[in-house]
Amino acid sequence: MTAQCHSNKLKKKDYEHELERLQIELVKLQEWIKQGGLKVVVLFEGRDAAGKGGVIKRITEKLNPRVCRVVALPQPTEKERSQWYFQRYVAHLPAAGEMVLFDRSWYNRAGVEKVMGFCTDDEYEEFLRSCPEFERMLQRAGIILLKYWFSVSDEEQEKRFLERIHTPIKRWKFSPMDLESRNRWAAYSAAKDRMFAYTDTKQCPWWVVDADNKKKARINCISHLLSHIPYEDIQYPEITLPDVNKEGYVRAPLEQQTFVPDRFK
Question: What is the DSSP letter of 40?
């Protein structure tokens, strides 16, 4: 299934206005999750440079990191490779009142591990068989699970890779694996299609985000996320700030105070 907005064009001013509105709604959702003790997991998968990180950043930048946290796991250790495959992901699942965003997830096995030969054929086939049942287990345990796949054209991906290579503050984003993803475009496409065939289930479908336009992709994804987790406004109690009570406070002598030097004097 595909998450889309109706507008073909999105001006910067309109984008910023809509993003602000959605981020206000995300704060409401956060409070509903916290007070209602909900457990939410959102998976972000897709092509390299498809914009997953940008969407995650816009979701989290106004939220409390104690309620909404991001999980982006490094390569597994030797010990983790010997464990049940899903084990290291289970350790990061939410407790009541939390939302966890996985910047890549257990679907590494169906994508990069399969294409790059980091797992055996038996391990890959077992993943395809067991993943739908694993996700049903999560849902039976009360976890709200959403899965997003970010789709990007090869032309747009090339443009973003070149931007990463030639922009100093983005150069860290480019890795040797990105080069290989270009060389193995067809293999990744085939792996994605087979992954969908096994794991795009009625109980836990994949939602495809057209990510060639970053702004539209962010608005589409956040809007869709909000529409699939029922929530209500939280009514906060009226608060009156009291006067500051400085009784008993003695200011330290000036020579004992430490100041940060002003570089712009």
Answer: E
* CA distance readout (Å), 226 to 63, 229, 230, 232: 14, 6, 8, 11
Q: pLDDT tens digit string along 188-240? A: 999 999 999 999 999 999 999 999 999 999 999 999 999 999 999 988 889 99
* Helical residues (DSSP H) of the chain, grouped into ranges: 12-36, 52-60, 78-81, 87-90, 112-116, 121-140, 154-166, 176-183, 185-199, 214-227
- Tell me the pLDDT tens digit for each residue of 171-195: 877 777 777 778 898 999 999 999 9
**pLDDT tens for each residue of 86-96:** 999 999 999 99
* Residue 158 to residue 47: CA distance in whole angstroms: 12
Helix (H, G, I), strand (E, B) or coil at 2: strand
- Measured in whole angstroms, the distance separating CA 155 from the mean position of its chain's CA atoms is 24
C-alpha angle 116/117/121, rounded to 5°?
135
The number of beta carbons lying within 10 Å of the beta carbon of residue 255 is 5
The confidence score (pLDDT) of residue 144 equals 98
Counting every residue, how long is the chain? 265
In contact, 95 and 34? CB cutoff 8 Å: no
As beta bridge partners, residue 70 has 101
Q: Phi then psi for 203, rounded to 5 degrees? A: -75, -30
